[in-house]
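Side project, low priority. Logging it here so it doesn't get lost.
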Amino acid sequence: MPFNLKSLTGAALVTTMLSPALAQEPGQVPTPQAAGDVPAPVAGAPLSPDYAAAIGRMAYLWCWPLVNMHNRQTLFATAPHPGLLGGVLPVAPLNQISMLSDYLRPEQRFVTSPNQDVVYGAGFLALDEDAVVVQVPDFGDRFWVYQVVDQRSDSFAAMGIQYGTEPGAYLLVGPGWDGETPEGIKAVYRSATNLGAVFPRIFMDDTAEDREAIQPLIDQVMAYPLSEYTGEMQTTDWSESPTIPNPSEGGDGETQWVVPEEFFTILPEVLAETPPLPGEEAIYAIVGQVLDAAAEDPALMEALNQAALETEADVISGMFEFRNNGVDAGNGWRTQKNAARFGYDVFQRTATAKGNMFSNVPNETMYFGADFDSAGDRLNGAEAYTVTFPAGELPPVDGFWSLTLYNEQHFFHPNDLDRFSLGTKNKSLVTNDDGSLTIYVQNEPPGDGKEANWLPAPADDFSLYIRAYWPQEAIVSGDWTPPAIEPVN
């Protein structure tokens, strides 16, 4: 189906009639035009493959996260009921969520850079079908946060302990929703797009006691269409979640959510479901002209497909490395300043979608990634490293912190200890005599009673990642600097 530019940008933008500003007397200076008065590109113009490729490269970079979200939602739409895809990944039909009952397993390949500090939930939204009710149990003083994002990966709801969110039911609605808010709904959050996602994160200590204590709480974490709202708290025993067969199981890297050869076939649908931000109407018009022409001209579509393949290889693939995202945080670490608040920052949005998608907003979480040690060498299991937090200089948080190790694909490295991070959740960490805390990052056990502080590394390249949930001002402002990653000689 040809790309319907008119349906995306409105009749005023795509009209081919001259605007009043262009119909001036000879020699008269045209007056500034409103966006709606600007003529759209002329349909049927003889576009060249080179021009299509140039526009295609820009569109691929700009829309990569949007297509990514679209394809993830497509997977969730196939779920017959809430459950665990392949026995490890929480999935649910659209406008519902599924919860784990323990930490995320290393076998999952749904999203890179996960953490092993929280019990995760996941659900994708289709807010054009119905508004969605999200339940919040009484978590007491336990850290929790629900990340709620639109199709651009921007957060649109403030739900978490740091916001003082009360237990109860909350409503998520799409841009066109004009219904009545039922009694009992605590607040309404409106998304800029109908496609969205919800990711509950509930902190859990790495102890048998806390695993037991958290179960009745997470059983109350649910989401469902507004049409199913009764005013009463609904529950599900998530520890009994059924396994849903995963047809795409296997592979070392993340599921390929963006396939270059299919990108421009899907893009018209993605643009149609993602209204332009103010000022983006011109980009929609320019890209739309090329998509319309390519729908009728195989040579143009081939140019677009080739541009997608080249941009994936030349630009997107490099964004996967932590060193190529965020800003310098000191001692070789990088951090993000606008995660889940990307707005017009196409680079950060796409880089984050590639390397660590679904990052929380900075006041909820600050992230620090490192690929190199203090000498500037790539982190590798052939070496041993120490990360020492001086006394009184653990990450200053009101929630929790952790140091996570990822393999080359930004997933957990399976090991005999089943340990992928160390931090607040670990109650057996041993401090040094001076009160500092040293974490030993290496392939082999460190010995000498240091195993409690050992973060097992693979034999090859890896990366480190510090999470600071509910960060204090010193982290947000940049006054706190992560410690150096020191190679052990």
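Brief comment: The first strand starts at residue 83 and ends at 85.
Revisit when time allows.
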